[in-house]
């Protein structure tokens, strides 16, 4: 099988992920649907040999965005549940909204109590059986293996469950998210410099280098997006990506053992030296008043093109595609992934 097909197969499995609502307790190869609003957040840059685990980064909380928009979409994803209307001026919990009556919705897959989901601490029930011995979670802390700390700092706990730090969403409960409070994810942005047929780096009309990133096509709506994944309290998804990418790519590479070793070293080096693009609250349509997405976006740049940059990715006729795309403000991507890429382009000094 051709190398491009093998790489596409890897990202197809990554993008497709497990069944919906597979939860953050294991690295779930799914798209987080992340978005952020630059006008209301400060993007922080951080270099590290190994990206910080969200568990260990609560000492420097990210600024809270003033509004969320996708978290107030009229119909909750994967359902026919309509959100209670929340106008911009009533988003903040500090603003009185006495008539506010959010729809209480938690998907059936979450209510079935899979390992990645919490119990309903509001009613202290498990699978319909009353229980008086349910151990209360350690909110705003590392609760065993479950990361209940937020990048945004401490959140409020009201009626025994966390309250969304940005404000009202029109839905309470957990929707299709497994955890009350923050549900942690990571978004890797793998980039390289675009080159022509002669191997020369391409520049735009302003003489800026053109960068490319690996994009995957979502199975649910066909939109192009960044790959992302849910993470466990003890693991960063980018490290898992490095391991699995190496396994899948190197096993299919038509190269001798010496070449494979060189490429493996390049890949390991690439994924060991990422730079943080963003960490914090995600304006995700799955968010509710009591459960929300947070992410850490990391850029992994193959500057000399000797690692992942040498792979020519093509979507082909796969059900879910994968390809290199030019960083450009003209792109139309899922959610607000374009914002992550704009920050990446600025960091690289690349064309935008």
Secondary-structure topology with pairs:
Layout lengths: L2 H14 L11 E2 L16 E3 L54 E4 L1 H4 L13 E2 L2 E2 L11 E2 L2 E2 L9 E2 L2 E2 L8 E5 L5 E13 L17 E7 L6 E2 L3 E2 L6 H16 L4 H16 L1 E8 L9 E12 L19 E5 L10 H12 L4
Parallel strand pairs: 3-10, 11-16
Antiparallel strand pairs: 1-14, 2-15, 4-5, 6-7, 8-9, 11-12, 11-14, 12-13, 12-17, 15-16
Helix pairs in contact: 1-3, 3-4
- Radius of gyration based on Cα positions: 21 Å
Write the CATH architecture name: Alpha-Beta Complex
What series of H and E elements makes up the topology?
A: HEEEHEEEEEEEEEEEHHEEEH
The number of domains: 1
What oligomeric state best describes the polypeptide chains here?
single chain
Structural class by SSE content:
alpha+beta
Task: Estimate what percentage of residues fall within beta strands.
Answer: 15-25%
Could you characterize what this model shows?
Pfam families: NUDIX, NUDT9_N. With 352 residues, the protein is of the alpha+beta class. The chain has one domain (3-348): Nucleoside Triphosphate Pyrophosphohydrolase (Alpha-Beta Complex), CATH 3.90.79.10. Helix content is 18%, strand content 21%. It is built from 5 helices and 17 strands. Strands 1, 2, 11, 12, 13, 14, 15, 16 and 17 form a 9-stranded mixed sheet that branches. Strand 4 (125-126) and strand 5 form a beta hairpin. It is elongated, with a radius of gyration of 21 Å. Mean pLDDT is 77; it is low at 1-59, 246-252 and 314-319.
């Amino acid at each position: 099988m051709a190398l491009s097909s093998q790489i596409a197969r890897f990202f197809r499995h990554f993008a497709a992920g497990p069944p919906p609502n597979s939860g953050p307790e294991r690295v779930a190869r799914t798209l987080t649907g992340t978005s952020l609003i630059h006008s209301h957040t400060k993007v922080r840059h951080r270099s590290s040999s190994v990206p910080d685990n969200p568990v260990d980064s609560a000492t420097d909380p990210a600024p809270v965005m003033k509004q969320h928009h996708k978290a107030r979409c009229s119909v909750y994803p994967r359902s026919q549940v309509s959100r209670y209307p929340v106008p911009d001026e009533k988003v903040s919990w500090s603003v009185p909204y006495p008539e506010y009556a959010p729809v209480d919705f938690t998907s059936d897959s979450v209510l079935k109590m899979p390992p990645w989901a919490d119990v309903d601490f509001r009613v202290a029930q498990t699978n319909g059986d009353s229980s008086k011995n349910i151990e209360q979670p350690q909110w705003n802390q590392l609760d065993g293996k479950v990361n209940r700390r937020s990048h945004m700092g401490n959140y409020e706990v009201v009626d025994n469950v966390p309250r969304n730090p940005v404000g009202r969403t029109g839905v309470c409960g957990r929707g299709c998210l497994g955890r009350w409070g923050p549900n942690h994810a990571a978004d890797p942005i793998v980039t390289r410099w675009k080159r022509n047929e002669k191997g020369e780096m391409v520049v735009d009309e302003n003489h800026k280098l053109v960068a490319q990133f690996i994009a995957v096509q979502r199975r649910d709506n066909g939109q192009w997006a960044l790959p992302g994944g849910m993470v466990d309290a003890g693991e960063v998804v980018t490290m898992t990506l490095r391991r699995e990418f190496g396994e899948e790519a190197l096993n299919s590479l038509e190269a001798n053992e010496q070449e494979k070793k060189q490429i493996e070293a390049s890949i390991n080096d690439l994924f060991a030296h990422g730079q943080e693009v963003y960490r914090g609250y995600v304006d995700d349509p799955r968010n509710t008043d009591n459960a929300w997405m947070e992410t850490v976006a990391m850029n992994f740049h193959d500057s000399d093109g000797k690692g992942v940059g040498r792979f020519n990715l093509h979507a082909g006729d796969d059900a879910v595609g994968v390809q290199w795309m030019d960083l450009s403000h003209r792109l139309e991507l899922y959610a607000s992934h374009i914002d992550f890429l704009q920050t990446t382009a600025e960091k690289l000094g690349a064309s935008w």
